[in-house]
Design brief:
68% helix; 279 residues; mainly alpha
Length: 279
């Protein structure tokens, strides 16, 4: 039986808030804006304004693939979200893929077409997302979005209701693919997903530890995620009899997170590693 450990990190994920904005004054104003203006608004979370620009540009430039991609993606962010908007977005993305699935717009359309199925459909349809993710991986394995496609594919396939031996084989397959992911960000995310899955799905605490260490090595910039990962590594290494690894990561946590409420508990765990066991 594997040892257990007490988790010192929150289970809840990080939820990003999206800002709203007043609509543009008129369609004429929207049509005078460039696609780069619209993408900048999209990156800032001003989806309604961006959608106005993309829609106005599409009226004037029917063949502009960048504009149609922007219109499709911002449709998915408009409130209220409706089935009609999701269907319209899917149709725009499908048309882009039919025209050309191999250029940069096509690669993005493939990725977001998959995301539409298991994020924006109601109810979600992850099974319909799988072929799109797999095709992206097969056709563009070195593209940064291919790494993110692999992350999403792992989430879908590991958590679906399948026999434990099939899940273990899928986990082993994703583990084998992780080192070859070209994007450090995607490689980090994949290791985090696999580490979490190893814990939640009883796939092995050593496997979880290995993935969390690899995620940290790939570079974790978000402070809450980095703090959680350092604590997880420390706890797992402690219960698995790897005190030096635990000590190093507990100390990194204490050095880097001066106001974290877990500091006292982590300091106690660190001190316990240096206390001789009386038998």
């Amino acid at each position: 039986m594997q040892p257990t450990f007490r988790r010192l990190f929150p289970i809840a994920g990080i939820v990003a808030a999206m800002a709203g904005a007043a609509p543009l004054d008129s369609l004429a104003e929207a049509s005078s804006k460039s696609a780069s203006d619209a993408w900048q608004l999209t990156a800032s979370g001003l989806f309604a304004d961006a959608h106005d620009i993309f829609s106005a540009r599409r009226t004037a430039l029917q063949s502009d693939r960048d504009t149609r991609l922007g219109q499709a993606l911002t449709l998915l962010q408009l409130q209220p979200k409706t089935d009609a908007r999701v269907r319209q977005s899917a149709a725009l993305l499908d048309a882009l893929l039919t025209e050309n699935s191999t250029d940069e717009i096509g690669v993005n359309a493939r990725y977001f077409r998959a995301r539409l199925e298991h994020l924006h459909r109601y109810p979600p349809d992850p099974a319909s997302a799988i072929p799109h993710y797999k095709q992206l991986l097969a056709e563009h394995p070195a593209h940064p979005l291919a790494g993110q496609a692999l992350v999403k594919l792992a989430l879908i396939q590991l958590y679906r209701p399948i026999p434990s031996d099939e899940r273990a084989r899928a986990f082993a397959s994703f583990t084998a693919q992780a080192p070859a992911v070209s994007s450090a960000a995607a490689r980090r995310d994949l290791h985090l997903v696999l580490g979490e899955a190893a814990l939640r799905l009883d796939l092995g605490q050593q496997a979880a530890l290995d993935h969390f260490v690899a995620a940290l090595e790939a570079g974790i910039q978000l402070r809450p995620v980095r703090a959680d990962t350092l604590v997880r590594i420390g706890e797992l290494a402690s219960v698995l009899g790897q005190p030096e690894l635990a000590r190093r990561h507990y100390q990194l946590f204490l050095d880097g997170f001066q106001r974290d409420p877990r500091r006292l508990t982590v300091a106690q765990h660190l001190a316990a590693l240096d206390t001789p066991v009386v038998r």
